[in-house]
Design goal:
The protein contains 15 helices and 11 strands. The chain is α/β, with parallel strands linked by helices. The strands form 2 sheets. Strands 5-4-6-7-3-8-9-10-11 form a 9-stranded mixed beta sheet. Helix 14 links the parallel strand 6 and strand 7. The longest helix has 29 residues.
Length: 407
């Protein structure tokens, strides 16, 4: 009988002291065992140290000296059963006590509910009395493993903040790198260098893949093969249209170290729950969502709320699975031809994505002159930076033909 095993466990002074009083009220036990629990409480208040079953029985008999012979015989049988019972492991006993108490209160509330339905009770006063009587006794079934905040641990974790180094020279001067648990939002206008930005970070010389990071790219905008071509261009340092077709063996050799470290999937129509299932299975070091907004499930009539919920999910994925998550996002028309866009210009979002981000990078570019080739100058704006604290605008060149950012 579980109740008797719990009584046997409570004979241990250390366990009893952790669960005495409100943590283990006598009312959670059945009527007969409740009287034994009362004797146990009295004995623990009176005497020091652990108790034996014989000690408990002696105190019980003294407190109930007027028992009839049949009642005394029944309790002697209970004590024999307690004596042969095995004590329960401390953590299991704690959870069992919590469950028993919740069941007891649940039964009281359920019976009161029947009385309401049957019309025998017409006020909420009995429910209020139950809540008032038991609120302090309710034992939550919660177990917390506190984080280690010792000096050495915190220092070691801080030194891991830049595990994966950034390889874009102008940006690396200000933000050395990222690590597992980081949520990075990257925003830009259409056709201004978002895909080339992450292809540079992952596939160009010194990129995440070359450092040994396991990278997953989930794309839902461009066709996946076009994105892969950007990665081939960045890793081979060849013009995709002109040089690459003439140097396929060399391009293959340069791309292989990257190909071995990345996985890519056209994820059109998928949502954040699916993204989490992929991360849980694959355990990447780097996750790139291109475009992040399109993984959001419509949960509200307001788009900003929908995107905020999706961003919170993405950040939780980063922390739960210890990966760096890059969330690629469009900037609104307000950012067109601006070299210094700000976080308020994120498409469809107010503060949700900005609030969750550890690092926010917004790519700006000046207005193009009609009739001229696309301007290769880009401006990398660090709009939010909880990693190093630096904010500002960094000029960089985008080699459009090879998909590489450089100084």
């Amino acid at each position: 009988m579980m109740e008797l095993a719990l009584v046997k466990t409570l004979l241990n002074r250390e366990f009893y002291d952790k669960h005495r009083g409100v943590h283990c009220p006598e009312r959670i036990f059945s009527k007969d065992v409740r009287k034994i629990k009362q004797a146990l409480d009295t004995a623990m208040e009176t005497y020091d140290g652990d108790l034996s079953v014989s000690d408990l029985q002696a105190v019980f008999n003294r407190m109930n000296a007027s028992m009839t012979t049949s009642t005394k015989t029944a309790y002697e049988d209970l004590f024999k059963r307690i004596n042969i019972a095995e004590p329960i492991k401390s953590e299991i006993a704690k959870d069992t006590l919590s469950q028993m108490f919740q069941q007891h209160v649940g039964d009281l509330v359920a019976n009161l509910g029947f009385n309401f339905v049957n019309g025998t009770e017409n006020t909420l006063e009995p429910l209020r009395k139950i809540l008032e009587e038991y609120k302090d006794d309710f034992t939550p079934n919660t177990r917390i493993e506190w984080d280690d905040h010792s000096f050495d641990t915190v220092l070691a974790l801080s030194q891991q903040e830049t595990r994966w180094k950034i390889n874009i020279p102008p940006l690396a001067d200000r933000v050395e790198g990222v690590s597992g648990g980081h949520f990075i939002v990257v925003g830009a206008r259409p056709n201004s260098g978002k895909t080339s930005f992450h292809s540079s970070l992952v596939a160009a010389d010194g990129g995440f893949a070359h450092q040994g990071a396991k990278c997953i790219l989930l794309t839902n905008e461009e066709a996946y093969n076009r994105v892969v071509l950007r990665y081939i261009g960045a890793s081979s340092k060849m013009c995709i249209k002109e040089e690459l077709p003439r140097n396929i063996p060399l391009a293959q050799a340069r791309y292989k170290p990257v190909a071995d470290k990345i996985k890519i999937k056209d994820s059109t129509g998928k949502n954040m729950d699916w993204v989490e299932s992929v991360v849980k299975q694959e355990r990447p070091d780097i996750l790139i969502l291109d475009m992040g907004d399109k993984f959001a499930t419509q949960t509200s009539d307001r788009q900003d709320i929908t995107l905020r919920i999706a961003a919170i999910h993405a950040r939780n994925i980063a922390k739960e699975y210890n990966c760096a998550v890059f969330w690629m996002s469009q900037l609104s028309a307000e950012a067109q031809d601006r070299t210094a866009p700000n976080m308020s210009m994120l498409e469809g979002s107010k503060t949700g994505k900005a609030a969750e981000a550890d690092l926010m990078i917004l790519i700006g570019m000046a207005a193009e002159t009609e009739g001229e080739e696309q301007n290769s100058m880009r401006y990398i704006n660090v709009a939010k930076n909880k990693l190093t604290g630096w904010h500002g605008k960094i000029p960089a060149m985008l080699d459009v033909k090879r998909g590489i950012y450089k100084r």
